[in-house]
Design a protein that fits this description.
The protein is mainly α and about 270 residues long. It contains 14 helices and no strands. The longest helix is centred in the middle third of the chain and has 20 residues, at about 160-180.
Length: about 270
């Protein structure tokens, strides 16, 4: 058990350093030991960690299977905070997969459980993901309301990562609201507001500790600018994001960023 926990701790260090492949290898070693000794709590936690790494790598279905395993084990042992977290992780993976109905259901369950259990730390991030699932599922105004609620929660926490996530969610959904207006009738104020939240998110992530999240926000800034016709400036943000995704091996995010890029920008790279 001690060796397995050590593998987990080392894997978390590698993850923080952006070495997702090395972290995944250590998590798998830890998981093998946990299974061998029948340590269910440890199996659940390691499935959670490995599932998160697979999500970062773009291996969404594998990550989803692991998070579902973690959920089942946490339900068996009566770990209610863990169950709440697992529902959130499953919902986040469905969000990345574009399965917005399933994502909204899982994230709503997680939010309700976290509220009931007083889990204030993760609640703002889970609520931000719920906002995105709601908006991308077609309820943009409702999603924006949820995102603003998440932003208020994150501000109360005063922790950089959570504020960055919440600001990005508001910016993304505000950008979706702006893009609903056809042709040249989009109010400039909606575009400017969306960009302001995204720039704020990027600033929060730009201290070097959150390279992957900074790149994700850069991708969203590039997406918004591309939609507004600011191809050159948007392309610069996209290229920065693409460079980071390639370095980290974040293939899901890399595919998304490349799809946003115009053919001209792709040729320049």
């Amino acid at each position: 058990k001690g060796i397995a926990i050590t593998y987990n701790n080392l894997a978390n260090i590698l993850c923080a350093q952006g070495d997702y492949g090395g972290a995944a290898s250590l998590f798998r070693k830890s998981l093998d030991i946990m299974k061998e000794i029948g340590y269910r709590e440890g199996i659940a936690g390691t499935c959670n960690n490995l599932g998160t790494i697979y999500q970062d790598q773009g291996r969404y279905r594998e990550g989803l299977d692991l998070q579902k395993t973690a959920l089942a084990l946490r339900e068996e042992i009566g770990d209610r905070p863990g169950v709440a977290m697992s529902h959130g992780n499953i919902g986040f993976l469905h969000l990345d997969l574009g399965e917005y109905g399933a994502s909204k259901n899982e994230l709503s369950t997680s939010v309700s459980m976290q509220e009931a259990l007083g889990m204030k730390t993760l609640l703002s991030a889970t609520t931000s993901w719920l906002a995105l699932a709601t908006a991308r599922g077609g309820e943009v105004d409702a999603g924006l309301d949820i995102a603003r609620k998440a932003l208020s929660m994150a501000a109360d926490l005063g922790q950089t990562w959570f504020e960055g996530i919440a600001n990005r969610s508001v910016g993304v959904i505000q950008g979706m609201k702006w893009s609903e207006h056809p042709g040249g009738t989009q109010p400039e104020t909606e575009y400017d507001e969306a960009l302001r939240y995204l720039i704020r998110s990027l600033a929060l992530f730009s201290d070097g500790k959150f390279e992957h999240e900074a790149a994700r926000t850069s991708m969203e800034i590039g997406r918004l600018m591309e939609a507004a016709g600011h191809t050159r400036e948007g392309g610069e943000y996209l290229r920065r994001a693409i460079d980071v995704f390639q370095k980290l091996g974040a293939m899901g995010d890399l595919d998304r960023a490349l799809q946003i890029s115009s053919p001209h920008q792709t040729e320049e790279r």
